Amino acid sequence: MTAAGRFWRLSFRWSGTASRSEYWWATVHVGLLCGAASLPSALARRAERIRAQQRDAAGEDLVFNAAVGEAVTREQDELLRSDPAAVRRWKEARPRAVQLRDDLPNLLQILVGIPSLNLHVRRLRDAGYSARTMLWSIVPVAGPLLVMIRCSRRPAR
């Protein structure tokens, strides 16, 4: 767990380098952390979708609305699809615990964003690339893959 500890300790230290093992262990750590944070919300949405299907099969006129993650009547579904403000009002009316459960993955991604960027920059520097290589991440699909491949390279020294 020293790599995960270094990930957090060196979150805002932009100088220096990161070894390949430090990079990969920290990446696994962040992936597991984000996955664990997403799990309650994903399971709740799945359960709600199953409940909507069961209630619909039982004769109730319900559908699963992905925007709010709940089973709603067809009339409510039409309103939610046509009015973006209605989706916001619907989400604000939910209990705080449900809002936190759904927002936790996003909050965690914001929390690990700068430390992850820092780790990538330090790893790229160790592999002999400029920090500007991170700009390739902006390119959809191929960019992050290119950065990951470059982070996988042996140290330049």
Class by alpha and beta content: mainly alpha
Number of H/I helices? 6
User: What is the N-to-C order of secondary-structure elements (H for helix, E for strand)?
Assistant: HHEEHHHH
What's the average pLDDT?
A: 87
- In the predicted model, the low-confidence regions spanning at least 5 consecutive residues are none
Chain oligomer state = single chain
Number of strands: 2
Largest sheet: 2 strands, antiparallel
Q: What is the spatial order of strands in the main beta sheet?
A: 1-2
Rg result: 21 Å
Q: Compute the number of structural domains.
A: 1
Principal-axes shape call: elongated
Strand content: 5-15%
Percent helix: 55-70%
Q: N-to-C terminal Cα separation, in Å?
A: 26 Å
GO cellular component, one term: membrane
InterPro entries: DUF805 (IPR008523)
Protein name: DUF805 domain-containing protein
